[in-house]
Design a protein that fits this description.
There is one protein chain. This protein is an all-alpha fold and 325 residues long. It has helices spanning 2-31, 33-46, 68-75, 80-90, 96-114, 121-132, 134-166, 171-181, 186-198, 203-213, 217-232, 236-260, 262-285, 287-295, 297-321. Helix 1 (2-31) packs across helix 6 (121-132) and helix 10 packs antiparallel against helix 11.
Length: 325
């Protein structure tokens, strides 16, 4: 009978995921960026701007899986490219199939592990779903740490590029110097940009690809400044020096803000995790003590109300302590 419970839980999980994906696709098909891009291309074609030539990309395409059959299957999933872009931005040597396989494995392990505790099925499914999200959040955390590292390296990279331009080097050569003289992760990103330019891709396209791989506000300032300078002219070395000074000032201010908000962030973590930790300890010590909360209808209502209130409280605390600079 337990196997039917696991099958039922798995089907519910798949149904919820498909429902969310369907709702998103419904919105994206009419209001999303892809719909706007298609409409813009249709307007250009109707205006006679389309010359009938097919654009050929020479950029290396990432594999979603080592298996050709799995590769074809993953390509049919909507928005799978967004997940692949997230893995690329995180710097982890994972493929999309590895991440999805890890999420599935963690889900079933957590579902089987939760079956040893005297908890209702809905709680087991919720715990398994939360555990299945851990690999995704790990990738998100790796992406955040990598972006912070790139932002810290960016001022020095811009100074190096400015000195190279003052010495008479061309802009692609300055990109090459950053990839040679500095360390990863910024060296690897600029090395990819230099390779794209060296293989024949236009500099604006290579810089836009760099901004796509590294979704950093400071790096986008650099890309926009270079693109504007190539159109209007000016002293690019002086411009890079000014951007470097602004980024350093922003990083310094951000460090001061983090120091001043450290106590609030620690309090938020403690207040968010304390109920779950206390409940887990009580469940281990005396399972019957908390059984009334998820066996009695009144206890289940109290758990639902408490969960909703905790979610709102966490969102409010996150809004208070998250100060954007």
């Amino acid at each position: 009978m337990d196997y039917f419970y696991y099958l039922f839980g798995t089907l519910i999980f798949i149904a919820v995921v498909l429902f969310i994906e369907g709702a998103y696709l419904t919105w994206n098909s009419s209001k999303g960026p892809e719909a706007e891009r298609i409409a813009r291309r249709l307007r250009n074609m109707s205006a006679g701007a389309h010359n009938g030539e097919q654009e050929i990309s020479i950029i290396k395409q990432r594999l979603l899986s080592q298996s050709p059959a799995m590769q074809r299957l993953l390509l049919r999933i909507p928005r799978i490219s967004a997940l692949d872009r997230l893995l690329q931005q995180s710097g982890l040597p994972w493929s999309v199939s590895m991440l999805l396989g890890l999420i599935t494995l963690v889900y079933f392990i957590a579902l089987f592990a939760s079956s040893y505790f005297a908890m209702p099925l809905i709680v087991q499914l919720a715990a398994a779903s939360g555990a299945a999200a851990l690999p995704y959040f790990y990738v998100k955390r790796a992406k955040g740490k990598r972006l912070i590292r790139i932002e810290q390296q960016l001022p020095d990279a811009l100074d190096l590029m400015g000195r190279a331009l003052r010495a008479g080097h061309a802009f692609p050569t300055a990109l090459k110097m950053i990839s040679d003289e500095m360390s990863n992760p910024i060296a690897g990103e600029f090395s990819i940009a230099f390779d794209e330019v060296n293989f024949g891709i236009a500099v604006p396209d290579a810089l836009m690809n760099l901004a796509t791989r590294v979704p950093s506000t400071d790096l986008r300032y650099f890309v926009i400044a270079v693109l504007i300078q190539r159109e209007t002219g000016g002293n690019l070395a002086e411009l890079l020096a000014n951007i470097s000074n602004i980024i350093r000032a922003r990083i310094k201010l951000l460090g001061q803000v983090r120091v001043l908000s450290a106590e609030g962030r620690m309090s938020a973590w403690i207040l968010s995790l304390l109920p779950f930790g206390a409940g887990l300890m009580m469940q281990f010590v005396n399972p019957e003590f908390l059984a009334v909360l998820y066996t009695d209808p009144s206890g289940q209502k109290m758990l639902m109300v408490a969960g909703v209130m905790m979610v709102f409280g966490i969102l409010v605390m996150r809004k208070i302590i998250r100060i954007r600079v």
